[in-house]
Amino acid sequence: MVAMLALAAGALPAQAQILETPREVAAVRINIIDLLANEDGLPLPIKQRREVLRAYYEAANGDLLWLNSNRGEQFLARLADAESDGLTAADYPGAQLGRLLDVAHSTDLRSLGIIELFFSAALLEYTSDLSVGRFLPGKVDPNFFIQGRKIDQAQALSELAQTLDIKGFLDAWAPPDPEYGALKHALAEYHAMAAHGGWGTVPLGDVLKPETIDPRVPALRARLAITDAAEPALDDPQLYDQPLVEAVERFQKRHGLEADGVVGPATLVALNVPVEERIASIELAMERWRWMPRDLGPRYVMVNIAGFELKRVEAGAVAERMPVVVGKPYSRTPVFSDSIRYLEFNPYWTVPTGIAIKEELPKLQSNPSSLAAQGFEAVAGGQAYDLRAIDWTRYGSGNFPFQLRQRPGESNALGRVKFMFPNAHDVYLHDTPSRSLFGRAERAFSHGCIRVSRPLELADAVLRDGGVAGWSSAKIDAVVDSRDNTVVTLANPLPVHITYLTAWVEDGTVNFRKDIYEHDTKLVAALDGKSIAW
Q: Known catalytic residue: 447?
């Protein structure tokens, strides 16, 4: 082990050739097997992966992976460029591995075994980080209910032995979804912007409206020329002209702002976010893509909480997008994956007990007729009671024996249909009579469930994608008009993924959103504190 420590210090000169004969290769492999079987003082990264490394190198085809091949040089180049994968080069032992590779020609066979194992352990760590993420999601944020995954390390070593192309190997382990690839491409573009100095700020001031003259216009034009194809001034450089208005509207749209061309406080704040923060948002989105299931399904529904948007995907292509309303910051919509199993048309709404006591009981105590007129009733022992027949002053938080339920109808809080994927969070998709909220740029207003803007169109598609025969938009309309509570079970449950992404690419354009739940802040803190075991 003293020899290994000397190697890590990089004390000896470099030479290209390491092992010259098959006999030397076999001798190194014997030393590797012995180290893994008997050495108690192995470095931690190797010790943590001892069993899988031992299984690989003891196998009949457990060929050396790094010595006397150019895989090592390729891997070092990839580690040095970890930022292109949305990772951090300083988190990996590139410098140490480089020094070990430089001195490998002049050391003993047992130390060569240590070098081989160091590279294999580092490769497994990088492959895992690239494929499934650097953290278990729930350890970073308790609002993420995503099952943590691990890579098959034995498979990784076996696949590596079949190729000399480190880039191709690692790319194959990255998330396969095209949206992840689009984020990686956007990350490269924003790194290039950062290398050229990013962008300047637009000075604060009064609201800037189209066709006005303002000394800040040149700064605005220069800022948007970098990211939103703002054109040179047509006439007066201080005139907020129509081409620049259109560039502002493009910027506003992809940042989730009202695209009115008016540069007010919210637009100014977004304009002045530095390029480094935008790069961080892309990197965090890439990390969250690694947390997602590897196979999202051939058809699925995905909700992006931070983007206030639902999309329906078929065969890898987005078939439909629609606005949604998500939970308020203090009643956050959780992040998880499940499957839509049935739809309920003309649903009853059973008010959660906490909401019933905290929000509805005071109304019942002051004016039960108002809630009764909205279709509410009390249920106890399987029997429904008129709200006006109960003395609500007798009940409180420690004494509430009722379920509060709203009958189907125009004022029902769940609207005409709900999409059920039974889960521990009691979260689902549903219609709503409060249509005006969909017109707002930020839409965090619910108690945690997700309100969809075009529920009947979504129902038609979900029934079709879920393999339910005999339904059409006309039949859906007829069932809704009947006001009869109707449950339809999907023949094929449809995957639904509730996500949180503050950056994504749509139609080739990168979009950014505010961190409404401060999930990004928690992930940044976790990444900043990532320990380096090397």
A: no
